[in-house]
Design a protein that fits this description.
The structure holds 2 protein chains of 2 kinds.
Chain A: E1 5-8, E2 11-15, H1 22-39, E3 43-47, H2 56-71, E4 75-79, H3 83-92, E5 100-102, H4 105-117
Parallel strand pairs in A: 2-3, 3-4, 4-5
Antiparallel strand pairs in A: 1-2
Helix pairs in contact in A: 1-2
Chain B: H1 2-11, H2 15-30, H3 32-45, H4 54-74, H5 78-91, H6 98-120, H7 124-167, E1 172-175, E2 178-184, H8 189-206, E3 210-217, H9 223-238, E4 242-246, H10 250-259, E5 267-269, H11 272-283, H12 291-302
Parallel strand pairs in B: 2-3, 3-4, 4-5
Antiparallel strand pairs in B: 1-2
The chains are: A alpha/beta, B alpha/beta.
């Protein structure tokens, strides 16, 4: 299932609708990299609220997305990691180092707005 | 398994054993008054159950005695078990120790055995058979009472542990988007996990962006606890919250550096006040003291 990528002003918002397969994750990565250039976005929010588990491949791909988009000139925030998911991730040693995280979509947008005004 | 078989075996005694036991029971019933008094006297002499008054000891002794004789008669320990639990529930809060409870049951066993000795002195082989019938039941009774007491104690301990766990990990909101988590007492793995879960739920429910974890009340920290702390910080960050750790004592700081935990990502501030101030700064709060009120405050203090 494809992940819809919405444009909201200078930002892109990708909200996962269900758990993704590895191939779908890579599709998301490629689609985001392309869309960022096309729409000249300054920030991308990836909303993973729906996920109730995050494996190492997903965590690695999210890190890759953040690093790739930085090279394309955009900041990335991962939002909506649930308490149980966060617990499991740190137990597995998946810490998403260097990736910005926020509580939910609203906080993600607030993060970007702060970055621009300050 | 073996215990159950033993109970089944002894609750269906041989005909002769049953006869002996019923004779024994009638002997104990006849001498109830005297044996009971003897037992109570021995309890006082041995300085057991000192937390209870003489009258209370005597009343309990009567109940235990009657239960005891009943078990000898019927071989069914359920009633005694229930009584032992009930007794334990009443006397544990008064500080009665395990050795006292075991002690009084063994004393009763001794008192009764002595009376049997006296009665069957003349016929040595009969005495032997009577004791053969008496000993297993007596042991089982002692066992039942002791186990009942210890189980009750353990139940109370579990209950208290539960209460301490629930009491000691409050997650408090002090400002919009700011939580504090004061940790008091020893942290083990289970508690650390529970604490993290509670904090993460608190972050979601209160939409917190900054969390101050205060460990002033934690007496010592080992490698496991330190790693849990790091995990808590990481998990909170995944949920978009920054963690500030405060109240690291010099001893704990030394330990952490010595055991070499990676603390580069831990944001530490000296005390809780400093932590809250730092959090306010991160959240963009500015706290100003109004000059008039401040001077009034000084006046009030000087009065």
């Amino acid at each position: 299932m494809q992940v819809p990528i919405l444009k909201q002003g200078p930002y892109l918002i990708a909200t996962l609708q269900s758990a993704l397969s590895d191939a779908e994750l890579l599709d998301l990565r490629d689609a985001l990299a392309e869309r960022v250039g096309k729409s000249r976005s300054r920030g991308v929010i990836v909303d993973v609220t729906v996920l109730d588990v995050m494996d190492s491949f997903a965590a690695r791909t999210l890190s890759a997305i953040a690093n790739m988009l930085r090279l394309r000139g955009s900041d990335t925030v991962i939002v909506g990691i649930q308490p149980e998911v966060a617990m499991t991730m740190v137990e597995l040693g998946l810490k998403l180092d260097g990736v910005t995280t926020a509580l939910d979509l609203e906080e993600g947008l607030a993060y970007f707005k702060r970055g621009i005004s300050g | 398994m073996s215990a159950k078989m033993q109970i089944e075996a002894s609750s269906v005694p041989h005909e002769s054993t049953r006869q002996l036991l019923s004779e024994l029971v009638s002997h104990l019933r006849e001498n109830r008054q005297q044996l009971r008094e003897e037992w109570a006297r021995r309890i006082t002499e041995a300085k057991l159950l000192t937390a209870m008054t003489k009258e209370e000891v005597f009343a309990e002794a009567t109940s235990v005695y009657d239960n005891y004789v009943e078990v000898l008669e019927t071989g069914a320990v359920e009633a005694l078990q229930a009584y032992a639990r009930n007794l334990s529930e009443r006397i544990i809060p008064r500080g009665v120790q395990t050795d006292e409870v075991v002690g009084i049951v063994l004393l009763l066993r001794d008192v009764l055995a002595r009376s049997l000795f006296k009665r069957y002195q003349h016929d040595f082989s009969l005495l032997n058979r009577v004791l053969d019938a008496y000993e297993p039941s007596a042991n089982r009774i002692a066992n039942t009472v002791a186990v009942g007491f210890v189980e009750e104690r353990e139940r109370i301990i579990r209950q208290q542990q539960e209460a301490i766990r629930e009491l000691s990990t409050p997650v408090l909101q002090v400002r919009e988007r700011l939580l504090i988590l004061p940790i008091i007492g020893v942290i083990d793995s289970q508690r650390a996990k529970q604490l993290t879960e509670q904090l993460l739920r608190g972050i979601r429910n209160n939409r917190a962006r900054v969390v101050v974890i205060d460990i002033t009340g934690v007496p010592s920290v080992d490698e496991n606890v330190a790693n849990h702390l790091v995990q808590t910080v990481d998990a909170s960050r995944l949920m978009g919250a920054t963690v500030i750790v405060t109240g690291l004592s010099s001893v704990i700081a030394q330990t952490l550096v010595t055991i070499g935990v990676d603390l580069s990502k831990i944001n530490a501030v000296g005390d809780l006040q400093g932590g809250i101030e730092e959090a306010e700064r991160l959240l963009g709060y500015k706290v100003n003291a109004t000059p008039e009120i401040q001077s009034q405050g000084v006046d009030l203090q000087s009065k």
